[in-house]
Design a protein that fits this description.
This protein has three helices and no strands. The protein is mainly α and 103 residues long. The termini are far apart.
Length: 103
């Protein structure tokens, strides 16, 4: 595996694990009731969905590159769908974010 692909995959796996720990700790905390208003939950959910879906695409692209084969045309549509879903979750998080009143 090339160093760039390897670094991307390792970074993606670390990000997935860290987001998993963050969401697990957030669910264990009894004081946090409103997940809807927490923008970090939405951002981390968007990144989690994207990286879980995109890491296999990244690895398969590398394998196709090594074997000199072409990838399926549906892969690009899946990538675009993951990007749109990630940004939708982030936008929803900013829209639902609890408004802060400044004194």
């Amino acid at each position: 595996m090339s160093s760039q692909t390897f670094t991307y995959v390792v970074g993606g796996v670390i990000l997935i694990v860290c987001i998993g720990f963050y969401l697990k700790e957030l669910l264990k905390n009894k004081r946090v009731i409103f997940f809807d208003n927490n923008v970090l939950v939405w951002i981390s959910s968007g990144l989690l969905v994207f990286y879980i879906g995109y890491l296999p695409i990244k690895v398969s692209r590398y394998i196709h590159f090594i074997n000199q084969t072409t990838e399926a045309p549906n892969v690009r549509l899946a990538q675009y769908g993951l990007i749109i879903l990630m940004y939708l979750l982030i936008i929803i998080g900013f829209i639902k974010q609890k408004k802060r009143l400044y004194d």
